[in-house]
Design a protein that fits this description.
Blueprint lengths: L2 H22 L17 H4 L13 E6 H5 L7 H4 L6 E5 L8 E5 L7 E5 L2 E2 L20 E8 L13 E7 L7 E9 L3 E9 L7 E12 L8 E13 L3 E15 L7 H6 L8 E3 L5 E4 L4 E16 L4 E20 L1 H8 L6 H4 L4 E3 L2 E3 L4 E22 L2 E23 L9 E22 L4 E20 L3 E23 L2 E12 L3 H5 L6 E13 L3 E13 L2 E7 L5 E5 L2 E16 L2 E21 L2 E9 L6 E9 L5 E10 L2 E2 L9 E2 L2 E12 L7 E9 L7 E11 L8 E10 L4 E9 L1
Parallel strand pairs: 4-7
Antiparallel strand pairs: 1-6, 2-3, 4-5, 6-7, 8-9, 8-40, 9-10, 10-11, 11-12, 12-15, 13-14, 15-16, 16-19, 17-18, 19-20, 20-21, 21-22, 22-23, 23-24, 24-25, 25-26, 26-29, 27-28, 29-30, 30-31, 30-32, 32-33, 33-36, 34-35, 36-37, 37-40, 38-39
Length: 747
């Protein structure tokens, strides 16, 4: 289908969807009882303050444990959420296992706020989320809510594209044990053991999970060796729930974040340049076998949920997270001197003293380095909730402290002279302290109209002192005080239809990489949302329009730094305008269809760029990594309670990997389809359930790239007294048709 036809047919599809909404929305609902604190489970109390409800004027989608279960065979949470509206996912290894990422409304993972039981999961310094550190975490998830846009106030960095709050396993009253095993393409294998003691004497429950995932990856040597654990102890009575959780993971992944240039992509799309070793005339002779990322992360959480009376409840949370690990790299001398022109083989970079051998002075050496991160994160959260008749109040507070040490070790060198073992060639330490408080009120003015007001204040102090690799000194001392107000109205048209309108202003701080690459300013966003929610026996639907106006947005430039972190830069004014439609329709007693589509315009409004030595005002340009069309569909056939099969489809329109509208920076559109089948039965009293699952990814074997990078540099040496801007790109290829199948036994 050519572009002009596609652009004409998509608006028509939206029109037909809206007409279907108008017709089906007339179906009356039986009277819906209002929530009250006395009917809310103590598990839900934990997230009441940050999770949106049906009368909250924000745009959100809920995902349940059951929604995840059919596809939960080893891939990371971003991949399992791939079919939600406005969501684009990426995978370095090409299979959804290992390093994966998520973008929502064009905003990357550093601007998607993620919480686990109300505790921020985004790394405090980079603001990213690294799902590889929590393998198979979906097996311990009770529910997920994705709020698109700013959403409601939450804990941690402000949401600039979305917030994702995750609730882990609820208390299981009955004892069980389950064993799940899955195997698939690229030597993928996952084993998961789960158990629960059920409720013991005095209301105590113990449950847990052990997981192991191994995969070679689609990309050469993009292997993942992942181990994870989850242990939960609870005490519960009528008014009190105490939860103690210990969970974490150990990941060893061969590096696959280098991507491929266009020529290599065409010649061998599975090639991985990581770990290349050359002889002294430029012949590649081997790959370093330990070019890996090796990191472990442990989380300790304690939660106290208390129902104080029929109207008030309290939630307290404590968290300690420790992370430690490194990525190891072989630094090849010939490659550095002839291809990359990097510095990481020089003695200056390694902080070594040159020495003389005969008449030669040795200033460079092939070497192997480890770059370490060792960090600690302490969090205290507080929530107080009130509900009576027409009023709901939510108060929340957070206090956190992050300490992160970054350092490099030289573990081998070919010609380095006398050097102490594990010579340290840089060290710096970052500390980040945050305090925040929010107050929310939802007030019913009548049976039809309710108002929502949400006021948040955040205070951040961020400091870094020391050296970064180079070596060069690196220091940051910055403090911020942000006031983030939000508010809106919800109007009930019928018991099954609600209209909402909201406004949110939010500000957020730069991340560590931003400081390393310049003098960044904080970002500001004004978000306007208008939406319509429908819930009838035949259809559940939501359609919304949004206008997100940014100032000093830290946009992705498309380039990566030497450790693979995306480089961002402040731009003057920019905006995202869009419409999103999602439906859940019972087409027939055995057929269910869940389509969604997001259409958007994402623009820099006054972008400047220096080309060939001349600063140009490019005016309006497309924001990087922001496709104008993202659509998803899940068509399910459910002939019985035992069996279901579904076709899941995803279309992502073309996107620019930079902000200068260069044709070289285009990441082509792609349309992929997955097949998902589940069959379950109850064989006998000893085995309560057996479930077989199958996922065939990329059913039509589409060759595509879901991510990439774009960079420019100025050539000042080819032609004397002339500057020529050179553009370059890299791509991350995704796997063709592949499968994962598994069996789960529940005892």
């Amino acid at each position: 289908m050519n572009r002009s036809i596609r652009m004409k047919t998509l608006p028509l599809s939206i029109l037909f969807s809206l007409q279907a909404l108008l017709l089906l929305a007339q179906t009356p609902l039986s009277k819906i009882e209002k929530d009250s604190l006395s009917s809310i489970s103590l598990d839900e109390v934990l997230l009441m303050g940050i999770r949106a409800k049906d009368d909250t004027p924000v745009t959100y989608t809920n995902v349940t444990r059951q929604d995840l279960a059919a596809r939960n065979l080893g891939q990371d949470i971003p991949i399992l959420l791939n079919y939600l509206p406005g969501v684009v996912t990426t995978s370095d290894a090409g299979t959804g296992i290992g390093y994966t990422g998520i973008r929502v409304r064009g905003s990357d993972a550093t601007r998607v706020n993620v919480t686990i039981n109300g505790i921020p999961y985004n790394d405090a310094e980079s603001q990213g989320t690294f799902w590889v550190n929590l393998p198979d975490f979906a097996s311990s998830v009770e529910a997920i809510q994705l709020q698109r846009g700013v959403g409601t106030s939450t804990n941690g960095s402000a949401a600039f594209g979305a917030s994702l709050n995750i609730e882990t396993d609820a208390v299981q009253d009955e004892a069980y044990a389950s064993l799940a095993t899955s195997i698939g393409s690229f030597n993928t294998i996952k084993n998961t053991l789960k158990f629960s003691s059920g409720t013991l004497n005095e209301g105590v429950t113990i449950s847990g999970r052990l997981s192991q995932i191994n995969s070679d990856g689609y990309v050469d040597r993009a292997a993942s060796n992942l181990d994870a654990y989850y242990l939960q102890g609870t005490f519960k009575d009528e008014n009190t729930l105490l939860k103690a959780l210990v969970f974490g993971g150990q990941e060893i992944t061969y590096q696959s974040w280098y991507g491929l240039d266009p020529a290599t992509l065409k010649a061998n799309r599975r090639y991985n340049p990581a770990g290349e070793i050359y002889d002294n005339v430029g012949n590649r002779i081997a790959f370093y076998d330990n070019q890996v990322d090796d990191y472990s992360q442990e989380h300790y959480q304690f939660h106290w949920n208390e129902r104080l009376n029929l109207n008030w409840n309290l939630a307290l949370g404590f968290n300690y997270t420790h992370g430690s690990g490194f990525y190891e790299e072989y630094n090849d001398l010939w490659y550095n001197q002839n291809i990359s022109f990097g510095e990481n083989t020089s003695f200056e970079y390694l902080q070594l003293t040159p020495f003389q051998v005969g008449e030669s002075i040795i200033r460079n050496s092939e070497n192997i380095t480890q770059k370490w991160l060792d960090n600690d994160y302490y969090v205290l959260t507080f929530g107080l909730n009130f509900e009576k008749k027409e009023t709901r109040l939510n108060f929340g507070a957070l206090l956190s402290r992050y300490i992160g040490a970054h350092f490099g070790k030289l573990i081998w060198g070919e010609t380095i002279g006398e050097v102490s073992p594990n010579h340290q060639f840089y060290f710096n330490e970052g500390t980040k302290t945050e305090g925040s408080f929010f107050a929310k009120i939802t007030q019913n003015f009548s049976q039809s109209l309710s108002g929502f007001l949400d006021l948040q204040i955040r205070a951040i102090d961020y400091k870094v002192m020391g050296q970064i690799a180079g070596p060069s000194s690196f220091s940051v001392s910055d403090s911020f005080l942000f006031f983030n107000p939000k508010g809106g109205f919800t109007y009930t048209l019928t018991p099954g239809q609600k209209l909402y309108v909201s406004y949110a202003k939010v500000q957020r701080e730069p991340n560590r990489t931003d400081y390393e690459n310049g003098a960044p300013k904080p970002e500001k966003l004004n978000d306007f949302e208008l939406g319509w929610r429908i819930k009838t026996p035949k259809i559940q639907a939501q359609t919304n329009v949004y206008w997100m106006a940014y100032k000093d947005q830290l946009v992705l430039t498309g380039a990566l730094d030497e450790v693979g972190a995306p480089i961002r830069q402040n731009v003057g004014k920019s905006r995202r305008i869009g419409v999103e439609v999602e439906l859940k329709m019972n087409l027939h007693s055995q057929w269910l269809w869940q389509p969604n589509i997001a259409l958007s315009s994402n623009q820099n409004l006054d972008f400047y760029f220096e080309r060939n030595g001349i600063l140009e005002n490019l005016g309006k340009t497309q924001l990087a990594y922001s496709p104008n069309i993202v659509a998803g569909s899940a068509l399910m056939f459910v002939p019985s309670t035992r069996f279901q099969i579904g076709l899941l489809s995803k279309f992502v329109g073309k996107q620019y990997m930079g902000n200068i509208d260069s044709e070289n920076s285009i990441l082509a559109s792609y349309f992929v389809n997955d097949l998902n089948a589940v069959y379950s039965w109850q064989p006998n009293k000893w085995i309560k359930e057996i479930q077989w699952s199958l996922v065939v990814n990329n059913l039509l074997n589409k060759q595509y790239e879901s991510n990439g990078y774009f960079y420019t540099f100025n050539d000042t040496w080819s032609v004397p007294d002339q500057v020529t801007t050179i553009e370059g790109t890299g791509y991350y290829p995704q796997a063709g048709i592949n499968f994962i199948t598994g069996v789960m036994l529940r005892f």
